[in-house]
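@here heads up, posting the sequence + SMILES for the copper (II) ion run so it's all in one place. Ping me if the SMILES looks off, I pulled it from an old spreadsheet.
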Amino acid sequence: MKKFATVILILLLAAGFVYAKDYTVMKKAGNYMVHVKIDKNPPVTGLNKLEISIQDARSADVTDATVTVDYGMAAMPGMPAMNYKAKTEL
Ligand SMILES: [Cu+2]
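bot reply: prediction finished. Complex structure tokens:
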């Protein structure tokens, strides 16, 4: 019975990873609030789809912003710093 319970627990944990929530980040930028949602958690090498929404100080959606995604990695042993930019589409 204990073994059965262990198997169930492992299945629940595995299911938890399969159905893990999207990776989300919320950050204030001046008077704006920026929400970023990545479809993979954790993000993967390759394609990751980002959904970005911006609200103004009155919590109204900003619909005419030009958004650029600026991402990178600090230098680490054996790898130089890397910086990239990606355009977005509405
Ligand atoms: Cu690295």
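MO: The chain has one helix and five strands.
MO: One more: Helices lie at 2-18.
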